[in-house]
């Protein structure tokens, strides 16, 4: 008779002597289990772990946080979004896990949450504090719609971060320096990012069938929106000159598709590829390192690409149509 143990988690590891072993846990992050799967000892240790599992007390914010993470609203998010939420939810649990739900209707609660956000900003930065506040507000809004809480004190909390990206948009000199110093396999990813403004995940999954010679058509993984992007002359030349080694446009030298982690690792290695001191001047070394650093910290942010796309669209020499006025892309580029 086969017994299915709910929530069982296994991890396989390779030992120093080459052997492969599997470790079993009652649930992900739970206690390790004794014995071999299927044995009475194994099932007994599983039952002991489940019996010791602490059930969150009802009437606290922790119960709402856990219900949200088990809901379709959370599991239906993009993987990268869920990953970002999980770390912030843990911080919220540490700060307010035992916070009574009945206190959410108290007008002083909003001040308590705002004080926590202010402390978060001091330790982790204003943008990260705003992100944490947004996640908490979204969870409370989800609970309010389902009758789990009676109020959302985080609604319309404003933002701490105030800034503009127009001073960190890639210039023509930055782009030329990157194309001069970076490996050839990274040139097309850069041009696609700068000329389309799309997210890394969408570009890594972009097939050749999405490009018809004049436009790129894709469906964004995060929003589900269908996007039609005119292809500028510079990007068109790069795409037409690229051999089709795979159904996907962006591939490694061996023709295999990039993984998200492998792609990020390739960018991170750029900063280590510094010119030898004997062949270039100090200023050139600095400019080369700055180009690598700039891509690592700006290249992955699609809003910077939006700003650059809007900036180029206003250039009469650019093949793209003029950017619509009033959008955040154009406002970020205005001098």
List the helices and strands and how they pair.
Layout: E1 9-14, E2 20-25, H1 40-52, H2 61-69, H3 72-75, H4 79-96, H5 108-124, H6 126-145, H7 172-181, H8 187-196, H9 200-204, E3 215-219, E4 226-230, H10 233-240, H11 260-268, H12 282-299, H13 302-313, H14 328-333
Antiparallel strand pairs: 1-2, 3-4
Helix pairs in contact: 4-6, 5-6, 7-12, 8-10, 8-13
Question: What can you tell me about this protein's structure?
Answer:
This protein is mainly alpha-helical and about 325 residues long. It has 3 domains: about 10-50, no CATH class; about 60-145; about 165-235 and about 245-335, Orthogonal Bundle (hpI Integrase, Chain A). About 45% of the residues lie in helices and about 5% in strands. The chain contains 14 helices and 4 strands. It has helices at about 40-50, 60-70, 70-75, 80-95, 110-125, 125-145, 170-180, 185-195, 200-205, 235-240, 260-270, 280-300, 300-315, 330-335, and strands at about 10-15, 20-25, 215-220, 225-230. The strands form 2 sheets. Strands 1-2 form a two-stranded antiparallel ribbon. Strand 1 and strand 2 (about 20-25) form a beta hairpin. Helix 4 packs across helix 6 (about 125-145) and helix 8 packs antiparallel against helix 10 (about 235-240). The longest helix is centred in the middle third of the chain and has 20 residues, at about 125-145. The protein starts with 8 loop residues before the first strand and ends with a helix. Residues about 275-305 and about 315-335 have low confidence and may be disordered.
Summary tags:
single chain, 335 residues, mainly alpha, hpI Integrase, Chain A, 3 domains, two-stranded antiparallel sheet, 14 helices, 47% helix, disordered C terminus
């Amino acid at each position: 008779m086969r017994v299915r143990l709910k929530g069982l988690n296994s991890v396989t590891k390779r030992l120093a002597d080459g052997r492969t072993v599997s470790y079993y846990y009652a649930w992900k992050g739970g206690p390790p289990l004794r014995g071999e799967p299927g044995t009475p000892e194994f099932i007994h240790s599983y039952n002991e772990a489940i019996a010791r599992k602490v059930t969150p007390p009802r009437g606290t914010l922790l119960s709402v946080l856990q219900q949200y993470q088990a809901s379709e609203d959370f599991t239906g998010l993009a993987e990268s979004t869920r990953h970002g939420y999980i770390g912030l939810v843990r911080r919220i649990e540490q700060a307010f896990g035992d916070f009574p739900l009945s206190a959410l209707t108290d007008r002083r609660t909003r001040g308590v949450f705002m004080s926590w956000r202010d402390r978060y900003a001091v330790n982790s930065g204003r943008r990260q504090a705003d992100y944490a506040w947004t996640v908490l507000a979204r969870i409370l809004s989800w609970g309010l719609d389902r009758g789990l809480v009676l109020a959302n004190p985080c609604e319309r909390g404003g933002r701490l971060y105030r800034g503009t990206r127009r001073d960190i948009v890639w210039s023509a000199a930055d782009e030329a320096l990157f194309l001069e110093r970076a490996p050839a396999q990274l040139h097309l990813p850069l041009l696609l990012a700068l000329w389309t403004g799309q997210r890394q995940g969408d570009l890594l999954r972009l097939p050749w069938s999405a490009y018809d010679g004049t436009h790129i058509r894709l469906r964004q993984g995060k929003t589900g929106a269908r996007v039609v992007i005119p292809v500028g002359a510079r990007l068109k030349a790069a795409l037409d000159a690229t051999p089709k080694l795979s159904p996907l446009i962006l591939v490694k030298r061996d023709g295999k598709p990039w993984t998200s982690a492998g792609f990020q690792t390739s960018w991170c290695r750029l900063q280590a590829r510094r010119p030898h001191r004997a062949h270039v001047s100090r200023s050139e070394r600095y400019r080369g390192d700055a180009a690598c650093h700039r891509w690592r910290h700006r290249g992955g942010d699609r809003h910077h690409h939006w700003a650059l796309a809007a900036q180029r669209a206003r250039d009469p020499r650019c093949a793209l149509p003029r950017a619509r006025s009033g959008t955040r892309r154009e406002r970020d580029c205005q001098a």
